[in-house]
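Lecture notes, continued. The same structure-token format from the folding unit now serves as the input rather than the output. Read the line below as a description of shape only.
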């Protein structure tokens, strides 16, 4: 049997009945936009994270965009973030006319280095946006303290980390605003695009809720500039069906990730991923590092082990962003890890035998590279 990089089919086999039931209910009542499942999902997700408010949105990208809009980020402003992430993190900043200000990442976690943030702050800094890369948060208390010192809000880009914890607090509820994605491959994914924003500040939540629906305070009464950013009812229904088994899936991800790390750490030439002791990781990607990535990828492909690279080019090196960003203190670590990272198959339905097969193939690939 072929090894799946992320096995959504195995997941569906285990939850097909509740998924079908939830979707059928939406088809029957016909409220495809802002139906009752939207509010139900928002309430359950807010309770899960501990945040006061959850605002569902059309995608993780839309979540970041709406969060920045609610903070008033616009032309001439700056947002401090990491260059080693998916493009959406910087994309939304540029779309609002602001400048992404990049600071480097830690070499082991690949998350933003909090010690480098303060030097990047200027009078134009309107937000700090750490990314919870690969499924574990950055050093959020340190980053929040920097934000509080300078009166700058912190937005957690938690697109990859829903379900993870940081010092006993859920990702999404560890800063002023948390934004996540329900893209199908994410730890909690729907069957299309979707996302959510979390906040406990009433005024911010109200602003983001209105921005999501074209800036409407009430029907056809527009108090803000907004977007069409709603998550459709069927996708909310899918999330609701998945939530009943999500705690188990998170436990599996943590258990499998721990075993995976121990196994790959024993392979010469392979650097295992690092997760700090004060947080958990839900392994949106299980990413190792090696100096011989291309050769290892080729060897794994020959024996049927799929791989991916998250991410091969830092954002400050991307053609569309080179002239639109600012880098403070250099980005040597981001540039180095972008040449070394390699993601292996990972999902909560990964069995021990398949994991052994993957690790064995990785060991042989690393030895022959």
């Amino acid at each position: 049997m072929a090894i799946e990089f992320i096995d959504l089919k195995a997941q569906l086999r285990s939850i097909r009945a509740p998924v079908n039931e939830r979707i059928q209910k939406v088809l029957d009542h016909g409220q495809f936009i802002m139906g009752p499942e939207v509010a139900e999902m928002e309430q359950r997700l807010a309770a899960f994270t501990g945040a006061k408010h959850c605002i569902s949105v059309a995608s993780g990208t839309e979540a970041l965009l709406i969060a920045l809009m609610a903070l008033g980020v616009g032309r001439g402003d700056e947002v401090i973030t990491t260059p080693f992430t998916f493009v959406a993190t910087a994309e939304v900043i540029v779309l609002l006319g602001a400048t992404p200000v990049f600071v480097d990442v830690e070499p082991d976690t690949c998350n933003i280095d909090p010690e480098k943030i303060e030097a990047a702050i200027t009078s134009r800094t309107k937000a700090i946006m750490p990314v919870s890369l690969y499924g574990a948060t950055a050093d959020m208390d340190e980053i929040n303290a920097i934000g509080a010192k300078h009166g700058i809000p912190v937005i957690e880009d938690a697109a990859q980390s829903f379900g993870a914890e940081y010092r006993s607090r859920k990702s999404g509820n560890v800063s002023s605003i948390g934004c996540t994605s329900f893209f199908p491959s994410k730890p909690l994914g729907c069957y299309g695009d979707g996302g959510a924003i979390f906040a406990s500040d009433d005024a911010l939540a109200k602003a983001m809720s209105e921005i999501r629906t074209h800036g409407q305070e009430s029907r056809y009464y527009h108090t803000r500039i907004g977007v069409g950013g709603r998550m459709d009812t069927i996708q909310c229904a899918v999330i609701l069906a998945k939530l009943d088994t999500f705690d188990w899936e998170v436990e599996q991800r943590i258990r499998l990730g721990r075993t995976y790390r121990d196994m790959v750490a024993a392979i010469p030439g392979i650097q295992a991923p690092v997760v700090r002791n004060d947080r958990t990781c839900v392994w949106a990607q299980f990413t190792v590092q090696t100096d011989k990535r291309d050769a290892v990828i080729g060897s794994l492909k020959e024996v049927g082990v799929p791989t991916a690279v998250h991410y091969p080019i830092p954002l400050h090196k991307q053609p569309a962003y080179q002239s639109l960003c600012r880098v403070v203190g250099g980005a040597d670590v981001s540039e180095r890890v972008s040449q070394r990272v390699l993601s292996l198959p990972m999902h909560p339905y990964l069995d021990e035998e398949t994991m052994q097969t993957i690790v064995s193939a990785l060991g042989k690939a690393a030895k022959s590279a």
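Point for the exam: The first strand starts at residue 53 and ends at 57.
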